[in-house]
User: Which sequence fits this backbone?
């Protein structure tokens, strides 16, 4: 069945994550719609399983795919295998999380990035919170998995808006992206700092845990922002339990990246720099 | 005497069972009549336990026939055998260490209240009654079995088997770890249940026991039954001849003159063990080339003393001097370094690595001599094991077979071989011939005597008085964790020893008063 | 009983009942030390609110650990509880969001669906590992993957949400400051204690862990007892799933990752032997408290995330060392 | 030797060497079935490139599993290997990015630092669990947290990168299509096999797993042997860290999460008994292959991620069931 259609290998992070699952569905729909390429998609076991992404690149090189579209789990570890893929004549598009600039320079490759600005997105959420609280508002951050690039970016984004709006950052702790852990960690943070006014959670799963902790504590005076805008939080945004979340349009992101890769394959010019994809603050009226 | 003419309760014809290439049962035929006590005797590895395991549904047989009450009988599980009325005390223990004595005794049918819950009261009551019946009044029925010594465990196994009504009760070497007192009590019970019409199958390497309580005896040799005789018609030497195929040369049992010197090899002073800190402390001396016996009833504290000397359990106070110099023994390693060896009483838990080959077990203590630069020299190890095995008439398939495939008595020989290989200057032996057959026992005695003649000193703890009187130069009698008396060879007599062993109560009262 | 009367030994140890209470309370010492420390170190620690928090937060781990106790007592292990919980939650979540039914029916249906889903996984674990006598470590590792994959597949990796109001309420209900979900967990502990100590089934669970062969020789159907132990563990994973949903108001296919280690840790810190046959569910309760109090307290005293993780490790180790000494001194 | 002469048994079984090879090859049957299946299902599976990939991909798990074999053989378990690997990697990463040294010195320094860091963690695991006779499950669970926290603390949760060129090259070097890192792993397997089967130390490792008390009473320093087993496991975690760095060109404090389960799975699928005393490092090698081939093959045949996870679970279970039957038939 593999006639002359170009083969695109899509490497994502954990598909157990709704964000990437939506992305995959978007890509599959896109492949069916265009019909002029073959899509091979893989995810990874868990977010820190960097090796399996490298394995995936190696497997794709083995299979001789024409293009690799990749959302790196680690911005540094992926540079070298991707370089090898480029050397094998494969068109590589980096999306979702940008590869590390230094690492790219070191390996002597130049690779464009297609994707949103995680840091900027987090800042959007932070700004929404700051606006609500005003300067001096006391906030805490619930971080993602320490050491993960997107967790870093989002924390930095939150911190940017803390500085910019002169918020007071009381505490910053990780809950490893998990609802239950966020619930536990935040409950304790709230006990230790009863005067918290706002919470920035690095993803919506953790934001849900925070909202439940607030309900359990009977606190309605604390504002929460999340990230990702998963369907489960939309009702919360509607009824005000969640102030805002950030949509990165993951569904389209992979599909757009594939389009770009196919253009280059078809003889188009190589991509350059940062092809920004949209981000949007989702907030109640 | 039961009516031997009556039709057999259970008959076995030409039964065969093999493990891999070993024919454990190679044509076994015998019959049980109702209400008799039937002995099974034979050398170690002759197939007695295997037959019992077949009868009790643990192993399936390959050929032959078993008929019970005239019908074919082929148990497929222990449960099926129980339903058919066969109750067994196996040679190796099957107790639940962390469960209480009472729970172990009732494990087959734990009593329930009318709500279907465990009836602890009833369970403890039954256990108490069962233990009292076999004379174990000192054991707390709620104590975990793990905390008991080996003889107590054996009695608990027996008590358990007596719990349910059965028509055939099989006892596989029940007396191997018991002292006279318990053995006598057991025999009273056996006569009691025999009177009720229960058939008892009794395995023992002690022919005097066989001749004491059995009506008939079936002799095994190499997986075959040689003959079944009425006890009244044979003498012990006849039975031994059937067992080994020839007459056993009389080993000079009383010939051993105390050849040891006066030099003290090991002195124990005021030894108190952590298990019994309340005792006054044990002191005695062991001379060069002497075999010192320790007698006592079950639980008298004999094992404790050996374990403390060897460093297997910590010593609370007291010292041990070897050749006049005090030893610091914190762990078995120190004792071994000082030239002390210790044949433990419980081969399954302490003596053997059951899953590992015979060769590896025999070299476990003295692995240093069959290795160089930390590498095992397998040829040397095999030679060591072959030699050790030959010396003790070990019956085995291959040296690479796991020890677990050996019969009980042969496993015991491996434990001995392991310690003899190390050439210790002092050897502590706790029930060294437990489960060993008559011929091999004589062999072991002569080996031990030979070692003593070479100047090796030994302490032998044994529950068999004949063993102690035959083997030792002096006997130290213990009761209640205290030494009650020391007997020289000239003073040996069953009465004297038992008197001291039982005398614990009066003595200790006197002391504390 | 002539001979018996002659000889009377003094009992070798204290009566068992007291000893076993001390043993059960074992790790309690470490727990008390921890509580004392945190009470001094943080003014908030002993506040009513915080106690409520701690109780809520140990609930799920405790429920999983109760089932795990059965499996570990027979000498097995169940690595799949976290995944099975997620699977049961997704199944229950699908059920509770079915259209066209009233809230009461939905809730009953969901509870049944979740518990049955969990129990089925447990039965499978038990049957496969007991029938072929395979190491439960591997079998339940397989189930870990199977249940997680199934949870993701069924849910399409989407979080399920929007449950009946009464159900969501239940998760945060308090009775005199005590979370109802914790009462559920406590009830399971009591039932498990009762089953393990007062029923024949329970004693044979201990027996199998001690010496499986001996129990078989005593004529008991060991296979079914083992299956029962794993099924109980699956059942509690199902209950945990329901509690999770009630508490967080979502059913997430990626819930419960790593929960198995926490549950096993609670059981073992509680003094149950990993090789089976020895232990108690009261110990498990204390073990779950240790883990929960530690997690809560270390945040309250304001340690950084990384320090907190290190200290958690150290305290777990120190707690079992402490327990070791307690056991030693209480024995002598 | 009259009796011995009289009785001559036919050998009960095939000679041990062959039997043990069959036993070791045990799970090999399942592996062969898998390989056959994937070869048919995917044209790429047997390509030289893919074989190279598989070898590279199992390397780290294999290295961890070799050390784990020692620990499991003495009846212990080490849950900390993944974290210890990350810790060792961070330590080595700090060393290799020190300023002012030449690449050769840096590489030597880093390798030493990583291996020493790993070994120290292993020694701690061993000393604490053996000295107080505590369950290694809990002690290494503590170490899992301690090492991870330390790795995050030292690195400030930042990935360390930019290593000397030669070091990065080493990770992807091939010799006749065989990755050099795999050769390192294979060398460890051979050494471990030799140690376990030919040395007194290895003999006693098996002995301790079977009957610790018997080994102690035979006068061997059981404590030190146990410490040694855990230290070896820490050592291999250190080696794995170096290989990880060479292969991924980063030292990440969050590397290796969950690796312990994979390593333990390789050991147990390879037929080593979790209760100790029985097993072989050749089995571990095959176990690691099973896991690696499965992961690779299922991707090649294009299964969706969730299906893949479920099938992985099923295949692991089926593999041990298959092995069970093989063992049964080869015994009779
Ligand atoms: N599970 C087994 N696997 C292999 N061989 C076995 C097994 N059980 C018994 N055998 C062998 O069968 C033979 C008979 O053993 P059995 O235990 O019946 O002897 P026995 O007469 O009870 O000896 P003892 O007096 O020493 O208890 C022995 O050679 C033994 O090695
Ligand atoms: N490890 C132990 N822990 C607690 N109690 C023990 C232990 N070992 C033995 N005992 C108890 O100590 C007492 C003395 O036991 P010991 O084994 O020394 O007696 P023994 O004279 O050798 O008798 P036997 O070995 O025939 O039971 C017994 O009551 C026994 O139950
Ligand atoms: Mg026997
Ligand atoms: Mg004794």
Assistant:
């Amino acid at each position: 069945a593999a006639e002359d259609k170009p083969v695109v290998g899509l490497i994502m992070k954990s598909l157990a994550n709704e964000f990437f699952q939506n992305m995959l569905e978007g890509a599959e729909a896109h492949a069916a719609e265009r019909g002029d390429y073959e899509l091979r998609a893989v995810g990874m076991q868990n977010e820190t399983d960097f090796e399996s992404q490298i394995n995936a690149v190696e497997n794709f090189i083995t299979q001789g795919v024409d293009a690799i579209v990749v959302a790196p789990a680690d911005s540094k570890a992926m540079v070298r295998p991707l370089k090898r893929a480029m050397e094998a004549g494969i068109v590589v598009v980096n999306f979702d999380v940008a590869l590390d600039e230094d690492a790219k320079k070191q390996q002597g490759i130049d690779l464009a990035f297609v994707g949103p600005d995680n840091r900027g997105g987090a800042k959007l959420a932070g700004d929404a919170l700051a606006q609500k609280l005003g300067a001096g508002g006391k906030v805490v951050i619930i971080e993602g998995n320490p050491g993960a690039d997107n967790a870093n970016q989002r924390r930095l984004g939150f911190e940017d808006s803390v500085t910019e709006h002169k918020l007071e950052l009381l505490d910053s702790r990780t809950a490893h992206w998990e609802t239950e852990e966020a619930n536990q960690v935040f409950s304790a943070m709230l006990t230790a700092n009863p005067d918290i006014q706002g919470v920035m959670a690095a993803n919506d799963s953790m934001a849900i845990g925070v909202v439940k902790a607030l309900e359990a504590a009977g606190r309605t005076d604390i504002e929460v922002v999340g990230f990702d805008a998963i369907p489960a939080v939309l009702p919360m945004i509607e009824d005000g339990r969640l102030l805002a979340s950030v949509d990165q349009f993951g569904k389209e992101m992979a599909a757009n990246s594939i389009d770009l890769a196919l253009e280059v394959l078809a003889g188009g010019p190589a991509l350059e720099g940062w092809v920004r994809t949209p981000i949007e603050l989702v907030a109640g009226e | 005497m039961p009516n031997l003419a009556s039709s057999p309760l259970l008959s076995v014809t030409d039964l065969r069972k093999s493990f891999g290439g070993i024919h454990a049962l190679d044509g076994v035929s015998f019959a049980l009549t109702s209400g008799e006590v039937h002995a099974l005797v034979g050398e170690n590895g002759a197939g007695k336990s295997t037959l019992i395991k077949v009868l009790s549904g643990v192993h399936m047989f390959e050929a032959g026939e078993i008929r019970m009450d005239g019908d074919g009988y082929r148990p497929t599980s222990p449960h099926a055998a129980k339903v058919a009325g066969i109750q067994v005390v196996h040679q190796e223990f099957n107790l639940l260490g962390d469960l209480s004595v009472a729970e172990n005794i009732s494990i087959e049918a734990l009593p329930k209240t009318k709500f279907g819950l465990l009836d602890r009261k009833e369970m403890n009551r039954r256990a108490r009654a069962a233990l009292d019946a076999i004379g174990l009044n000192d054991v707390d029925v709620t104590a975990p079995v793990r905390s008991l010594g080996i003889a107590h465990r054996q009695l608990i196994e027996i008590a358990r088997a007596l719990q349910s009504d059965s028509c055939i009760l099989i006892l596989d070497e029940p007396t191997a770890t018991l002292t006279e007192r318990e053995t006598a009590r057991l025999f009273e019970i056996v006569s009691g249940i025999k009177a009720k019409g229960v058939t008892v199958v009794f395995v023992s390497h002690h022919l005097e026991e066989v001749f004491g309580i059995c009506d008939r005896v079936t002799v095994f040799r190499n997986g075959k039954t040689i003959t079944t005789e009425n006890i009244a018609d044979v003498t012990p030497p006849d039975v031994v001849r059937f067992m080994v195929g020839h007459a056993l040369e009389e080993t000079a049992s009383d010939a051993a003159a105390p050849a040891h010197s006066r030099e003290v090899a090991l002195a124990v002073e005021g030894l108190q063990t952590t298990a019994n800190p309340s005792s006054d402390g044990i002191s005695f001396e062991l001379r060069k080339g002497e075999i010192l016996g320790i007698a006592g009833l079950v639980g008298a504290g004999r094992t404790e003393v050996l374990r403390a000397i060897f460093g297997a359990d910590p010593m609370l106070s007291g010292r041990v001097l070897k050749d006049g110099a005090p030893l610091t023994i914190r762990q078995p390693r120190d004792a071994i370094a000082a030239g002390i060896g210790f044949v433990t009483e419980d081969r399954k838990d302490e003596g053997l690595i059951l899953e590992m080959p015979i060769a590896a077990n025999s070299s476990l203590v003295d692995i240093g001599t069959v290795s160089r630069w930390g590498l095992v020299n397998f040829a040397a190890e095999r030679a060591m094991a072959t030699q050790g095995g030959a010396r003790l008439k070990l019956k085995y398939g291959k040296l690479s077979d796991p020890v677990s495939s050996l019969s009980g008595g042969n496993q015991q020989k491996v434990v001995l071989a392991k310690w003899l290989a190390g050439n210790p200057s002092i050897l502590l032996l706790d029930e060294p011939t437990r489960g060993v057959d008559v011929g091999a026992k004589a062999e072991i005695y002569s080996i031990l005597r030979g070692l003593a003649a070479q100047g090796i000193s030994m302490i032998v703890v044994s529950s068999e008085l004949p063993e102690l009187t035959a083997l030792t130069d002096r006997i130290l009698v213990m009761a209640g964790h205290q030494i009650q008396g020391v007997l020289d060879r000239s003073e040996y007599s069953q009465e004297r020893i038992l008197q001291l062993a039982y005398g614990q109560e009066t003595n200790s009262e006197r002391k504390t008063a | 009983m002539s001979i018996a009367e002659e000889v009377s030994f003094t009992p070798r140890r204290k009566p068992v009942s007291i000893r076993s209470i001390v043993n059960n309370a074992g790790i309690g010492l470490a727990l008390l030390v921890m509580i004392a420390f945190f009470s001094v170190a943080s003014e908030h620690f002993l506040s009513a609110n915080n106690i409520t928090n701690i109780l809520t937060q140990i609930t799920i781990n405790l429920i999983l650990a109760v089932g795990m106790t059965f499996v570990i007592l027979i000498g097995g292990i169940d690595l799949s509880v976290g995944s099975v919980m997620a699977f049961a939650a997704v199944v229950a979540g699908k059920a509770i969001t079915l259209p066209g039914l009233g809230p009461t029916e939905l809730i009953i249906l969901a509870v049944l669906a979740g518990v049955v889903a969990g129990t089925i996984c447990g039965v499978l674990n038990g049957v496969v590992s007991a029938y072929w006598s395979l190491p439960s470590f591997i079998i339940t590792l397989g189930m870990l993957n199977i249940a997680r994959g199934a949870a993701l597949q069924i849910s399409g990796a989407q979080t399920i949400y929007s449950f009946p109001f009464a159900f969501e309420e239940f998760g945060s209900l308090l009775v005199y400051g005590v979370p109802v979900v914790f009462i559920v967990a406590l009830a399971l502990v009591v039932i498990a204690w009762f089953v393990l100590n007062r029923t024949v089934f329970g004693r044979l669970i201990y027996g199998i862990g001690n010496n499986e062969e001996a129990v078989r020789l005593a004529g008991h159907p060991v296979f079914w007892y083992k299956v029962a132990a794993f099924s109980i563990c699956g059942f509690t994973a199902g209950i945990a799933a329901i509690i999770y949903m009630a508490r967080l108001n979502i059913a997430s296919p990626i819930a419960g990752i790593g929960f198995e280690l926490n549950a096993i840790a609670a059981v073992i810190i509680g003094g149950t032997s990993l090789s089976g046959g020895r232990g108690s569910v009261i110990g498990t309760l204390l073990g779950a408290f240790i883990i929960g109090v530690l997690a809560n307290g270390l945040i309250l005293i304001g340690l950084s995330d990384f320090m907190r993780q290190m200290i958690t490790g150290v305290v777990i180790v120190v707690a079992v060392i402490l327990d070791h000494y307690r056991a030693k001194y209480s024995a002598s």
Observations:
- The pocket of adenosine-5'-triphosphate (ligand 2) is lined by residues B 147-152, 275, 296, 298-304, 345, 463; C 12 (CB under 6 Å).
